[in-house]
Amino acid sequence: MTATNIFVLLFSVLWLGFVTVWTILALNGPFYFAFFSIPFWIIGIGILASAINSSRESQTIGISSESIQILKSRPFRPKNYSFSLDEVDSITLETLKSKDKANDLKQLTNSESDLLSKGMANPTLKSGIQTVQFLESADFLEKQWITDLLSSILSKQKQDK
After folding, report:
1. Quick one: pLDDT band at residue 65, thresholds 50, 70, 90?
2. Residue 110: per-residue pLDDT
3. What number is the average pLDDT over the span 19-24?
4. Contact (Cβ atoms closer than 8 angstroms) between residue 38 and residue 30
5. Is the pLDDT of residue 45 over 70?
6. In which order are the strands placed within the sheet that holds 121-127?
7. Max Cα distance, the chain (Å)
8. In sequence order, what are the residues at sequence separation of 6 or more whose Cβ sits closer than 8 angstroms to the Cβ of residue 24?
9. Measuring CA to CA, which residue among 78, 92, 81, 68 is closest to residue 130?
10. What is the DSSP string of the chain?
11. pLDDT per residue as tens digits for the range 86-136
12. Strand order in the sheet with 58-63
């Protein structure tokens, strides 16, 4: 668990504590005052779920002679992607709009500081219209290594067919 995850987790607990007190106090007035707190409950629960997901996520990549699978195991909304090797167009390092700027900053070294303005490049699998990024929390060299490895496996499989 990183310092960022701890901060977000503590913030969400404080947020939900404040909303709890606020809701209890609002219940002392007309009952419809408490309904105003519903969006704040939703936001607090969303922040908490996001903090738990990012701290507990693990990713697995499975490759067989016919397919590639990417499994993102996490407590809320786990994802499983499966592609036939024939369907995969490319596996490259690409920069898509990152949702986790703090994680991007943590991964940068001095030689990669120019990536700050562009965002962090992640391994990206493209298959038709679907684009899947994976290993977002890995460091840059690991991302480069897995992208090169999977690209070479993909090109070898396509040459053999």
Report:
1. confident
2. 44
3. 94
4. no
5. yes
6. 90-95, 121-127, 130-133
7. 73
8. none
9. 81
10. --HHHHHHHHHHHHHHHHHHHHHHHHHTS-GGGGGGGHHHHHHHHHHHHHHHHHHH-EEEEEE-SSEEEEEEE-SSS-EEEEEETTT--EEEEEE---S-HHHHHHH--GGGTTHHHH--EEEEEEETTEEEE--TTS-HHHHHHHHHHHHHHHHHHHHH-
11. 889 999 998 865 455 555 555 554 444 444 445 678 999 999 889 999 988
12. 58-63, 67-73, 79-84
Instruction: Supply 104's token pair.
Output: 């991007």
Q: Measuring CA to CA, which residue among 59, 128, 137, 53 is closest to residue 98?
A: 137
Residues 6+ apart with CB under 8 A from 123: 91, 92, 93, 133, 134, 135, 143, 146, 147, 150
